[in-house]
Amino acid sequence: MKHHLFRLLIALLMVSGANRVLAQYPGPFFTDENRPNPLYFLYEPPVNSITPEGEFYNDWWFYEWGKTQREYSYADWDEEAELMSEEEQGVYNDVIGIEVGQLAPEILLLAQRAVSDVVLANRVAKSHFKRVRPFAFYGEPSFTPQNDEMLSQTWSYPSGHSARGWMFALVLASVAPERAEALAVRANAYAMNRVICGHHWKSDIEAGKLEAMVLFAAISGTQEYQEQLQKARAEYLMYAYPDGATSVDRTPSEQSKAIGRYYDMLGRRLESLPTHSLFIQNGKKMIR
Fold it and tell me: For the chain, how are helix, strand and coil distributed in percent, rounded to 5?
């Protein structure tokens, strides 16, 4: 019953759109007037084509690959694992070794404010490009068919999951730079899970990553970010490397560790993917 109610909550949040998502987060670092506009740096997505050719080949190839991965249960976590950690469901908690949530409020505040900015930027881009999600384009069920009707009414490019996931990882990497590589691996798995589910094209998640990188670069240059970063860094050092002065356990919950194991499984499978793919151009196979 609890499992069912949690899925219902996630569905309601997705239906309500970016405004409801933002209600979970504190205020962003930028205003709408000075926030970097993704329309100035995002490229046009490949034109969807029934036959895979040209630039669209990469999207088609990863969509077909993703369908072969749905038997693995880690994909199920996509609808349940959230970046915030109030419910001990954090995607990155096991990577940095502490439960990022109410027990680590300075880190959470830093990350959530940055995520607010990328959510708002993503909304601008989605409304502009209006790209159809892959499962809807092909008229096939996604990994979560119970959500397909609702998801088909929202846009695909760029991926909000990828943008939020990469932004959270980039912020945590600034807090815990020694964990930067592991955080990047986890962010990639978190984003690629959306391809497996059939909710996003590969180019959607690449655009979401770019969106996060540009917004993070701008945000990290603000005085507000640097001041909050110092607080978050001090909190991280205190709890990740305790000296016995605190008696409060801030290590990741068993639930967060379980989520981490599932994404690690996906990360290992992603390592076996080719570093390039072939696409068709003017009747010839080309290496991309």
Answer: 60, 5, 35
Nearest of 41, 15, 48 to residue 203 by alpha carbon: 48
Alpha carbon distance 102, 87 (integer Å):
9
pLDDT single digits (tens) 173-222: 999 999 999 999 999 999 999 999 999 999 999 999 999 999 999 999 99
Domains of the chain plus CATH, in order, are 2-277 (1.20.144.10)
Local structure of residue 82 (DSSP, 8 states): B
282: exposed, middle or buried (Cβ count in 10 Å: 0-12, 13-18, 19+): exposed
Spatial CB neighbours of 221, under 8 Å, sequence gap ≥ 6: none
- Cα atoms found within 13 Å of the Cα of residue 147, Cβ hemisphere only: 21
User: What mean pLDDT is predicted for residues 41-54?
Assistant: 89
